[in-house]
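Dear Dr. H.,

I hope your travels went smoothly. While you were away I took the liberty of generating a structure for the chain from your last submission, since the lab meeting agenda had it listed for discussion. I wanted you to have the full record in hand beforehand rather than looking at slides cold. The sequence, exactly as received, is reproduced here:
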Amino acid sequence: MTEAANARLCADGWTIMDDDGFINLVGPLWHRMVGAAPEYAILGQDKHRNRRGVVQGGVLMTLADRTCGMTARFVSGAESLATIQMDTHFIDAARIGDLMISRPHAVRTTKSLIFMTTQVSVDDRLVATSHGVFKVMRDRIHPAHAHVS
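The corresponding predicted structure, in token form, is as follows:
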């Protein structure tokens, strides 16, 4: 990603979300609030290219899954969630250089499940829709932090 692209995104109110896990390999993941609604984005880069020369569908699915999960945690107050179902429909191709924006929101929350949806768009063009179900996890031990005795 070029410094000019970073500067343009920062000027538009976007900030990079720090993450040293999988999303770091895909991202950077950008975030901003528009009123009370969160928006997340990934800028299409050469590393996202598939054999057809457009953004690999898995990038769109990763963006949808991560942003729905983060928003589900925020709206529910749950510390830990797991994706138990994610349905994605590809509407149009995203291209290298496109800013892919996810605008997730909760459809319904229960004590144990959170139903989410998001649309991923480039400018005014819809490229994917995703609907996910997230389970509230009761255990608070992350496997990377568990001690083996």
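Two observations you may find useful: The CA atoms of residues 7 and 102 lie 20 Å apart. Residues 3-139 form a domain with the Thiol Ester Dehydrase; Chain A fold (CATH 3.10.129.10).

With kind regards,
E. W.
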